[in-house]
What we know:
Elements: H1 3-14, H2 19-26, H3 30-37, H4 46-56, H5 60-77, H6 96-104, E1 109-113, H7 120-130, E2 137-142, H8 153-163, H9 175-188, E3 191-196, H10 201-204, E4 215-220, E5 231-234, H11 240-250, H12 260-269, H13 274-285, H14 292-299, H15 302-308, E6 310-311, E7 314-315, H16 316-324, H17 329-337, E8 346-347, H18 350-355, H19 362-371, E9 376-378, E10 382-384, H20 387-400, H21 403-422
Parallel strand pairs: 1-4, 1-5, 2-3, 3-4
Antiparallel strand pairs: 6-7, 8-10, 9-10
Helix pairs in contact: 1-5, 2-4, 8-9, 11-12, 11-13, 12-14, 15-20, 17-19, 17-20
Organism: Actinoplanes subglobosus
Domain HTH cro/C1-type: 8-63
Protein name: Helix-turn-helix domain-containing protein
Amino acid sequence: xxxxxxxxxxxxxxxxxxxxxxxxxxxxxxxxxxxxxxxxxxxxxxxxxxxxxxxxxxxxxxxxxxxxxxxxxxxxxxxxxxxxxxxxxxxxxxxxxxxxxxxxxxxxxxxxxxxxxxxxxxxxxxxxxxxxxxxxxxxxxxxxxxxxxxxxxxxxxxxxxxxxxxxxxxxxxxxxxxxxxxxxxxxxxxxxxxxxxxxxxxxxxxxxxxxxxxxxxxxxxxxxxxxxxxxxxxxxxxxxxxxxxxxxxxxxxxxxxxxxxxxxxxxxxxxxxxxxxxxxxxxxxxxxxxxxxxxxxxxxxxxxxxxxxxxxxxxxxxxxxxxxxxxxxxxxxxxxxxxxxxxxxxxxxxxxxxxxxxxxxxxxxxxxxxxxxxxxxxxxxxxxxxxxxxxxxxxxxxxxxxxxxxxxxxxxxxxxxxxxxxx
Length: 423
């Protein structure tokens, strides 16, 4: 046999070792060594290769030859590595404070949370790319937290174990045992794992390793307050200058100094939301005859703005809809009716006027919206919509409630506001 397997066997026999002796000296299982020598498994990861080289006491030249044959085998098989992270975008902008905080306060479990479209996954992938040299492996797993059926912890554990080259025959059939396996493996290996788009605490808690090992980076629309010992990084929309910089990095037209004012207005109409900015910039970049003014004219029509902020299989409204689908019936009713309230923000008592709910339940209904990133908490007892989410809520109101019901709610709100002002 030629290639990596043949070279490994030749070195083992040259050292006068049986497979059992090499396994004991290297910490690599007999089965794994046998599979590698027979070409029944992919080439080993760098850490495994290093352990084998030390146990075999190979020279630097022999080590380089062994490593080269391992790389060649990976290229020949063309087998994709499981759970590979998405590509880090080359035009990543902003999040300096958040990245600095992650660096200054290292933690084994980091949670990045925020509203839909705010760039949670982009930040996680960017941080993972910047830290690539510190870890043996970087893994990414989409937990599908806003799908109708999120990924079960047992299936998530199985996929991670396979990505870490654990043989399917060694993966436990029982869910609890399988989760225990991945915790043990992650506790021993220096990996960075992105658990993307988490649904809730119950989904991720069984996957988190104990002290030691690598780092787990979770992204979620929820704050996952039930997780202990977690560094929480809450994301807000970008600052105006960062928004303009992102648009300029995507579309050449936005780099024209004479268009600076229009670029700033496009950023404002996008609510400085990274997803909206990236879609707007892409639309501009792919329409070479457009000016920034052409894009601005289309975004200026409020009723059409969400439609403009959609391209291919990506859209701002689609991102909001995934959170909206997670709401209870009472939460959906409140979400759409809150658009009747004038002004930039509001307090909890208005909930009873909008839905007829008990005033004591108002905070619970508002917390549901905040938890899913559809409402922002402003101070201790006031709330507000992101501009684009308000447009989405107005769409839901027009679709889900007849004109007569909308008019009656507007009248109740106006009457309550007059009475409240008088009081």
